[in-house]
Amino acid sequence: MKRKRLDGFTIKTLFREYMVEYLHCGFVGKEDFTDVFMCEACLSWLSSARELREHMEVCPYRFWVPGDEIYRCRRRRFVVFEIDGRKMASVPYTRRIARLAKHFIEEKTTLDDLHFFAIVVLFEVDDYGYHFVGYFSKEWRKSVACNNSLSCVMVLPPYRNKGYGAFLIKISYEMGRIEGIPGSPERPLSAAGKKVFIRIWREEILQAIFSLNEEGLPLTMNLLSWESGMAVEDVAVALHRLNAVFFVNKHGPLLHLPSGTKAFAKRRGMLNIKSLIWTSLH
């Protein structure tokens, strides 16, 4: 399978070896097909443009998602839903998300243990309904012994370079702050993923520094971890990238940043914390 077509988009897939294993449509036996037509709302796969058009006329997911809306940006017209993978009503949809992600995330995505995860999905929305953009998954903190704030994250190619990937990662850290449990992305990170996370770690630490300075609190590793929602190990990586220096005085270990760094330590980006309406499902 060379391409996946979602409404007006055609996407070149990355991992062709998943074709037969995960393609449960009536046209699997054909040797000459190169396109798979996909509903942007429910992520069902169809064999032709005609079938897709007919399906979209009756698709129940166009204006409904089996989860809870936790964020809405009216200016940029997108919404975020959290889907509980433990609920039977959510299983078909979460499996379709994982099946789609298999074509873009080779290492981590599985269809067998989705009940261990919350799936946080981002959609662009217009008068025609919801348009799947991407997602991240996170394990239930109290059901497994892990500190992962995020397991998998994926944004479809047509929606990349719009800031959605960074936005989803920052929501995962904001969830960690709300839970009071600093976390870290599941390892191993791909080369591209590591590059993105290093940039976001730097931004999150700068934001944490700004907040702690506003409150008149010392810049210690533990306070930075608590304020940023990041694991201490990731805080250390971010500080190293900022050329930070620790020293010890009578109050304990403190942090010194190069001149001018604090001036950039302000909250930026597309995440408006006041628009995030979320409580842990645990």
From TrEMBL:
InterPro entries: Acyl_CoA_acyltransferase, HAT_MYST-type, MYST_HAT, WH-like_DNA-bd_sf. Keywords: Acetylation, Transferase. The active site is at 186 (proton donor/acceptor). This is histone acetyltransferase. It comes from Trypanosoma cruzi (strain CL Brener). GO terms for biological process: regulation of transcription by RNA polymerase II. Pfam families: MOZ_SAS. Its EC number is 2.3.1.48. Residues 1-280 form the MYST-type HAT domain. One of its GO terms (cellular component) is nucleus.
